[in-house]
Amino acid sequence: MIKIIVAGSALGIIVFLFFFGVQWPLFWKESGFTRVTSDKLDQYNPAIYGDLISYINTDSDGAEICLYNIVSGERMEVTDDHFNQYVNDIWDGYIVYGDARGGNSNILLYDLIEGREVLIDGGGEHRMFPALGDGLIAWQEFDGDSYQIMIFNISRGVKSQVTRGKHNDRHPKVSGGWIVWQSDWEEGSTVFLHDIRENSTLQLGGPGEIQFSPSVHQSRVVFLQLVDGECHLFLHDMADGSTTRITEDGADKQNPSIHGDLITWEDTRNGNLDVYLYDLETGLEKQITDHPADQYLSDIYGRWVVYTDERSGDMDIYLFEYNEGP
Ligand SMILES: [Ca+2]
Ligand SMILES: [Ca+2]
Fold it and tell me: Which of 103, 248, 271, 310 is the 20 to 30 A CA-CA neighbour of 165?
């Protein structure tokens, strides 16, 4: 009743925008954005595939995996077991995540069609950063001396070890039969690509170079590299073997993701973390967020960009629909 009365005046509109603008600033300030979560506790680390976003939701018991349907707006709690789940990824009816139930370091897969959870690998050693794509799960696992890259073929139910060296091989991503990761050396780090079908491995960087945080979609790999003290985004295309520098600005960056012709990452050029997008079709870079709070842990599928946003003082999931270009 009170809202109806004040909404009839100019002052009422300002009051309306003030109260609702503080809570949901994107709805009236910027178009193309959807605030997926508004809970006062933290929601973070979204991953997207098709119409589905998986993310970590904290509640009084800990951190659980949740699922949000972009089309229907429906929400689903995937795990509810009072163990902390972390770092999730989603692909075609499956969600992969890690947890520490039983004092072990576990990699788990949730089958959305069957509605059941499957333990992929567990035990005492450290397993981290599970990634999922095109029927394969990849993660990093500590073998007592260093981290190695492991993969699991979902349809065959077979686990295999990809790396065996003394270096720390970390942060795998997987798509189209390719696995990418970063390998830390005594000086610097370099990006590796492994072709599952050919069982061949390609090293992108050379001695002394610092390459990190690779991501892959089909034949295209994006990664970050330090060049004369600047941090730049690069694209390597396995189809023609070319490597191209994408960014002009050399500010620190993190977490690039690629899907089709679109690349997202987080950039510090404005003094805080913002999500940026590069369209390979148009050759144009777009700043997605410009709020002074941090936006980070982004992922992209099609024209949908998801990320974690701290503008409300806690962590929330936001969704942006990119509609420029062809
Ligand atoms: Ca929140
Ligand atoms: Ca920001």
Answer: 103
* CATH code for position 72: 2.120.10.30
Centre of ligand 2 to C-alpha 172, Å, is 26
Q: What is the mean pLDDT of the chain?
A: 90
Ligand 2: distance of its center to the CA of 187 in Å? 32
What is d(CA 152, CA 139) in angstroms, rounded to the nearest whole number?
9
pLDDT value, residue 90: 97
Q: Return the closest-CA partner of residue 37 out of 314, 263, 281, 322.
A: 314
- The band of 223, judged by pLDDT with boundaries at 50, 70 and 90, is very high
Residue 110 belongs to what domain range?
A: 1-125
Identify which of 224, 212, 219, 217 has the alpha carbon closest to the alpha carbon of residue 262: 217
8: helix, strand or coil: coil
Ligand 2 centroid from CA 221, angstroms = 25
Q: What is the domain count for the chain?
A: 1
The dihedrals phi and psi of 4, each to the nearest 5 degrees, come to: -65, -40
Which residues of 31-115 form beta strands (DSSP E)? 33-35, 43-49, 52-59, 62-69, 75-77, 85-91, 94-99, 106-111
Looking at the domain assignment, is residue 13 inside a domain? yes
Ligand in nearest proximity to the CA of 314: 1
What was the pLDDT predicted at 219?
94
Task: For the chain, report the end-to-end CA distance as a whole number of angstroms.
Answer: 46
Q: Is the pLDDT of residue 9 over 60?
A: no
Which residues pair with residue 55 across a beta bridge?
A: 66
CB 45 within 8 A of CB 95: no
Is 141 part of a structural domain of the chain?
Answer: no
With respect to residue 67, please indicate whether it lies within any of the assigned structural domains: yes
What pTM was computed for the model?
Answer: 0.89
Ligand number, closest to the Cα atom of 274: 2
Identity of residue 5: I
In a domain, 216, yes or no: no
Alpha carbon distances (Å) from 107 to 7, 56, 118, 130, 298? 52, 15, 9, 7, 22
pLDDT band at 60 (very low <50, low <70, confident <90, very high): confident
The Å distance, Cα 57 to ligand 1 centre, comes to 8
